[in-house]
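Good morning C.,

I know you're traveling, so I'll keep this short. The sequence:
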Amino acid sequence: MHKLVAAVIALSIAASANAQLGDIWKKIDPTKIKKGAKVVQSASHEFTEDEEADIGRVVAARILANYSLSKNDKLQQYVTLVGNTVAAYSSRPTLEWHFAVIDAPFVNAFSTPGGFIFITSGALKEITSEAQLAAVLGHEIAHVTQKHILKEIKRANTISAGVDMAKESSTGSFITDELGEKIGKIAYEKLFTTGLSRRDEEESDTIGTELAALAGYKGYEFLTFLEKLKKLEGSKEMSILTATHPKPSDRIKYLQPRLKSDDGVVLAERWEQWTQASVR
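The C-alpha cells, ready to paste straight into the viewer:
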C-alpha cells in the first residue's frame, strides 16, 4: 500500500512541477542546438552531464525534424507525469528528464542521451493501463541511465582522440555542425534501423520493470503489453520495433522468471480517464 501512496504523491508533485509542459521542445531547433560546453574531446572522454545533454539535443532535433509532437496537451502532460514518477526511482533521479508523445502510427518508444524520451501515438494505442505505460517509459529511462546510445556514439569513434573541440561552434555548443550530423546519424540509425544489442535491450527491460515496480506499479503488466505486441507481429505498425528489438516472445521468456512479485497497482481506470478516446 505504501508504494501506491508514493506513486500517487509523486504523480501529484510531478503535476505541479510540469505546469509549463512542452517548453523544452519548443527550444529544440534542428538547425540550432543551443547549450554551451567548452571541452577537449577524445574517443575515451567521459562525457559530463551537460555534454550528454548537448548530444541528446542533437539526436532529439533529428527526431523532431522527422516526426511532429502530438498536439494533445493533456496526453503530453500525462506521459510526462508518469515518466517523471518512474524516473524518480532511477539511478539518475536528478537528471533533467523530458518526455514527449510524437504523432507516428508505428509502435515504438525511444530515448536519447541526457534524458529525452519519446513514445509514439501508435504505441499508446496498444497500452491499456498506467502500469504498462510506466514500464515502457521505465525501459527508455534505463537506456539513458545505462548510457546505451552514448556508448554506441563513443564506440563509433565519432570524436577522434586528440581532436581539439575547445572552441564553441556557431550553435553555442561544443558540437560542430559536422560532428552533430555524424552523431545524429549514428543515433538515429540505432533507434530506427539496426537497434541496440540484445544485451542492452534485455538490461533495459529488466531495469524498466524494476523501476515501475519501485514506483508502485504492477510489473507483470509489461508482460500483458508484450503479449499484445506478439499478436501484432508482421504488421506495418510493428516493423520498426521488430527491426530494433528482440521478439516480444523472447522478451517475455527472459522477463517472466525475473518478475517475482505480483504486487503493485495497474490503474487501468486512471489511464482511461486521462486518455479517453485520444489514443484509440
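Safe travels,
E.
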